[in-house]
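Handout, page 2. Input:
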Amino acid sequence: MAERTWQQQRDHWLGLLRSGNERAFAQFIDKYKETVFLCCRWLGLREDEIEDVASEIFLAAYKGLKGYRGKAELGTWLWSIAYRQAVSYLRKNRRHLQLEDEFQNELAGSEHDEPIVVTQDKEQTKIIWEAVERLPRLWALSIILHYREEKSVVDIAKIMRIKKNTVKTYLFRGRERLKQMITATLGENIDVDN
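Output:
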């Protein structure tokens, strides 16, 4: 018997998911729970809120699986659900448009000068990701989606429901701010475009 191709395995798994197979859905949750938690954290949910919102996200995904047609990768599709659910939660449970207000406040600029001594590439990578955490949330989310999750500008635009040019602007400004922060911290230029 010939082995199934990756595509056939994926299609079989999607078929099980769409049919409501509990075991397949448990695997789906295990595979994507860290991605969902990451999205929630980057949008500013507190740790005590993340579990509840993640449950809502996976419930929405479960309900939406029958309509999933594979136009986007499954992970990208789930990111868009996670983003919408988390933003919806923030809007319902916090002041209206808090994300946009925080974004504007952070644009006004707050400098974080924490001297960190780096001796290895691994430590430099850690410093870069710590610096990403200090960026305005929408810039940071764009950078995480692009560099850590390897999403395209088009996919990020779909997930965040913004224009491609806005994503490009967030990525450009985020990289520029990262360069400034890291140069100030380390006293040397580091290429954050890679």
